[in-house]
Amino acid sequence: MNLIKCEKLEKSMAELQFSIDAEAFKKATADVFKKEGKKYPVQGFRKGKAPRALIEKFYGKDVFTYDAINELFPEAFEAAVKEANVEPVGRPEVTVDSADETNGVTLTVKVAVKPEVKVGSYNGLTVEKTVHTVSDEAVEAELKRVQERNARELTREGAAENGDIVDIDFEGFVDGVAFEGGKAEHYSLTLGSGSFIPGFEDQIVGHAAGEEFDVNVTFPEQYQAAELAGKPAVFKIKLHEVKYKELPALDDELAKDCSEYDTLDEFKASIRKNNQEQLDKQDDLAVENALVDQVIDGMEGEIPQAMYDERMDEMVNDFAFRVEQQGLRLEDYLKYMGQTVEQFRASFMPQAEKQVKIRLALEAVAAAENIEASEEEVSAEIKRIADQYKMEEDKVRELVNVDDLKKDLAINKAIDFIKSHANIVEKAAEEEKAAIDQLLEERAAKQQEVQNLAASTSDNISSYVSQISASQEEAAALTAEINNADNSIAQLVQQAEEEKAAREAAQAQAEAEAAAAQEQDAEESSDDYEEDTDSYEEDSSDSQDSSETEGSEDTSEDSGDSDDEDTYEENDADFYEGDSDSNESEDTSDSQASSDSSSGQGKYLGNFTLTAYCNCAQCCGTAGNLTASG
After folding, report:
1. CB 76 within 8 A of CB 17
2. How far is CA 605 from CA 221, 379, 514, 599, 630, in A?
């Protein structure tokens, strides 16, 4: 392997480029051909007998290349990261830049690496330590558990009681259909233990062995099996046997049977001592956790997601191993819990994130203080593991990565270093309990104050609600009146629109009839005018002839002409009077005017008639026949 370059990228990523020499690649390719060549059939050759060159010709020149690279990659990658002094923490992304037996292989690898973190102050931290002591109640509770473990189970004759152990068959039905996981035979159940959903165990109490009966329950809304949540169910029960526990007496005999001590007092003292040791460990662990929390709060660095993912996978695998030891597959467990693998894995994220941060911070402290595990400490830890699992020390060394073990021991020593340099203020649990009680009293007082305020507010709200209700009733009545008025207006508007439409239709019909009548009158008037003109010309011609033949008679009648002139003047005056009267009465009767004009005859105001036809609407206000007499 030859490291070409190592470039550190942002977000704790690194890119390495390295090469594998041609000789190593050529040998790896030949080895792959020997193992995998028989998988590639070539016509004319028996299985596994085709030459490599022919296989590469048919299946591609690189048919064995990537398998050869996979064989060489782990060792080459490990050497590259060691030379580059980086620690990969995620799955590498590999790119093959080039590969041939003449020049070897060149690879580019992008991978998440352990970040370089900086920690703040870790010397002289201050933390409170709550010191707990074993109470008499705790000792009595442990003795009670000893009695339970050593109790005898006796068959009960009669009805089952709370606390009894029953042997039952059961099968559950929802909507008359049996559901998965709802059936068991000879199931041992302690009544009152709360092992089943609420109401199940209570309905068994009072039944005797040999009885068969139904138990009616409803699954909780938050039940782990979503398809059953909130649904009513019926369980068919067959009760085989009822047992009860007979507890042994608390005396020296029990102490002898259950411990290495001869008296009950010695047994109690040993229980107190063991419990106190456990409490002391818990108190010390609480102090360590508080100190470590302060250290990681002051830590700076970009932690890649790959570190959290790797830790979550480790925790999931560890859990799966433990449930398998109890005869249950992880898939079945998740189905029972109503979770997917993704949801279950994500539930470990907060814990994984904190553990990763703690390890990085403590490694940084160990590096800063040059803390390392000695060989003696490593040997002592291997011996402890061997004794715990009853194994040979050499076997433990084969199974355990010693380098990782040294790092773990260094981290433990870093915790001890921080703790030894911290200011630990001890406080008795009783003092803490008194402080908690005071806080609870203050909280209760605040709650009472809030309740009083809520009650007062409730009264005010009730008054406001009453007022609002009354206003709402008035508003509802007013709204009803407005709605009625709106309806009346709407009816009137509709009626007016209907009347308007009728008037417009009647007006349109009248205008059409008037237009037709006017057109007919115009035609008749034109014909009359032509007839009158012809008649006038004939009359004029006849008059002229008559005047020529009667000239002598006209001379004798000159004295009569003056009388005619006087008559003409009177008629002319009457004509203008008639015209004025006609203008004054113009608006009185359009139908009469139409009748007068359509007759084609003028009005006689003397001994002559004046007939004319006007086309100008400007001079007289209308176009058509104009007839006047004078």
Report:
1. no
2. 114, 157, 30, 17, 5
Residue 528 DSSP label? H
Nearest Cα residue to 237 out of 215, 210, 207, 206: 215
> Which residues touch 317 (CB under 8 Å, ≥6 apart)?
none
Neighbours of 238 (CB within 10 A): 16
How far, rounded to the nearest angstrom, does the alpha carbon of residue 224 sit from its chain's CA centroid? 21
What is the token pair recorded at 257? 């049977």
Residues in Cβ contact with 17 at an 8 Å cutoff, skipping those fewer than 6 apart: 3, 4, 5, 6, 97, 106, 107, 108, 109
Q: Check: CB of residue 605 under 8 Å from CB of residue 630.
A: yes
Contact predicate 107/18, CB 8 Å: yes
Q: Is 519 exposed, middle or buried (0-12, 13-18, 19+ CB in 10 A)?
A: exposed
The Cα diameter of the chain in Å comes to 193
Long-range CB contacts (< 8 A, 24+ apart) of 386-393? none
Yes or no: say if 208 and 128 are a contact pair by the CB < 8 Å rule: no
534 is written with which tokens?
A: 């012809």
The continuous run of DSSP H or E covering 4 comes out as strand 2-9
Q: Can you give the length of the chain in residues?
A: 630
Amino acid letter, 275:
N
Q: In this predicted structure, what is the pLDDT of residue 54?
A: 86
Judge contact between 107 and 17, C-beta under 8 A.
yes
Ordered DSSP codes for 503-529: HHHHHHHHHHHHHHHHHHHHHHHHHHH
Tell me which of 255 and 576 has the higher pLDDT: 255
- Tens digit of each residue's pLDDT (9 = 90 or more) over 542-554: 444 444 444 434 4
Q: At 314, list the tokens.
A: 């480790």
∠531-536-541 over CA atoms, to 5°? Answer: 130
Closest CA to 621 of 577, 582, 592, 565: 582
Is pLDDT of 184 > 50?
A: yes
Dist CA 270 CA 267 (whole Å) = 5
Q: Residue 474, Cα to own-chain centre: how many angstroms? A: 44
Confirm whether pTM is higher than 0.85.
no
User: Is residue 240 within 8 Å of 228, Cβ to Cβ?
Assistant: no
**139-170 as b/e: b if 16+ CB within 10 A:** beebbeebbeeeeeeeebeeebeeebbbbbeb
pLDDT recorded at residue 431: 59
Output phi, psi for 99, to 5 deg. Answer: -160, 115
Q: Which two tokens stand for residue 123?
A: 């010397």
Which amino acid would we find at residue 342? E
Three-state secondary structure readout of 180-229: EEEEEEEEEEECCCCCCCCCCCCCCCCCCCCCEEEEEEECCCCCCCCCCC
Please list, in sequence order, all residues whose beta carbon lies within 8 angstroms of the beta carbon of residue 518, skipping any fewer than 6 positions away.
594, 624
Query: Which residue in the block uniquely carries the two structure tokens 């360590």?
Result: 288
- With tokens 């109640």, the residue in question is 137
Alpha carbons 10 and 303: distance in angstroms, whole number: 11
Strands (E), 53-158: 93-100, 104-112, 126-131, 152-155
Name the strand (E) or helix (H) holding 8.
Answer: strand 2-9
**Model confidence pLDDT, tens digit, residues 291-324:** 999 999 999 999 999 999 999 999 999 999 998 9
